[in-house]
Amino acid sequence: MAEIVNLRSARKVRARAQAAEQAERNRHAFGRSKAEKRAAQRERERSEAVVDGAKRDPE
User: According to the UniProt entry, which residue ranges have a biased composition of type Basic and acidic residues (predicted)?
Assistant: First the structure.
């Protein structure tokens, strides 16, 4: 026998789960210290420089 589910409650549960997931992403993106943000930026710039340095010049 199937279980009876209140659709309104199911929507609320799904909305809470999505909000919790968004909050986790925000904590990851914005919950870093200034030093951590700078270190990530330097690492990104370094990796871009490595890739740019490995490119061939079209001749």
Answer: 22-59
Whether residue 22 lies inside any domain: the answer is yes
pLDDT value for 58 = 67
> Which tokens in the block code for residue 29?
């993106």
Helix, strand, coil percent values for the chain (each to nearest 5): 75, 0, 25
Range of the domain at 13: 8-53
Threshold 0.85, pTM exceeds: no
pLDDT in tens, 15-47: 999 999 999 999 988 888 899 989 999 999 999
DSSP 8-state secondary structure symbol assigned to residue 31: S
